[in-house]
Amino acid sequence: MIVSSGGEHLAQRGLVLKQAQALARSAPVIFQIREKMLDAASLWMLCHEIAPFIDAAGSLLTVNERFDIALASGAKGVHLPESSCPADTVRKTARGLIVGQSAHSETVALKASSAGLDYLLFGPLFHTPSKAPFGPPQGLEQLQEICEKVRIPVFAVGGITPDKALACIECGAWGVAALTPFLDAGSMPETVSRYLSFMPS
Fold it and tell me: What residues make up the domain containing 108?
């Protein structure tokens, strides 16, 4: 899973669009857009613009929290922060969308997994500046416990470089998510390939 950084679209004009276009040369992924600095109209325009590129690449576009914009823009899913509105309410309202949620503790993960979600994003696994506000690293042992206790796919997030991906998969994670390694849109396809090279075949 590739996560947009939440600010580069403003700081580096057009980065998200370049990332979406680069997916045409990449293996299919989930692309989560979380440009929180954009107002609703700008976010809808951006999602509407990048959705065709992501669809054509066989990838899935999910929108952070704004399931209304996901529905209106042609995105395939919505990703809920830990503090978002209840997942089961979103599921009933946004029928047809893939619904995932972030969890930063075992308590939240277990509760969220019974709310009709399609997947969990659990972390931070390792130290990373972008996830520092969510607390200390959870570590691989905690990831394994979560994966054993929930019945939906778990994506590991937080400081996961390609060489750390296999350890997460061996703990039971369905996949991994990352932000910083994909900030260079030009090298995105190669970066995706590096992650895949560490995954079980």
Answer: 2-197
Closest CA to 147 of 162, 168, 161, 166: 168
Distance CA 25, CA 19 (A): 11
The pTM for the full model equals 0.90
| pLDDT at 118 (0 to 100) | 94
Q: Is the peptide bond before 124 cis (omega within 30 degrees of 0)?
A: yes
Report pLDDT digits (tens) over 129-154: 666 666 688 899 999 999 999 999 99
Residue 76 belongs to a domain with what CATH number? 3.20.20.70
Neighbouring C-alpha atoms within 13 Å toward the C-beta of 47: 31
Residues forming beta bridges with residue 157, ordered by sequence position: 177
Predicted confidence at residue 128, as pLDDT, reads 74
Where are the extended beta strands (E) located within 30-76? 30-33, 60-64
Chain centre distance of CA 89 = 20
Is 48 within 8 Å of 84 (Cβ atoms)? no
> What total of structural domains would you count in the chain?
1
∠ CA 169-175-177, nearest 5°, is: 120
Mean pLDDT of the chain: 90
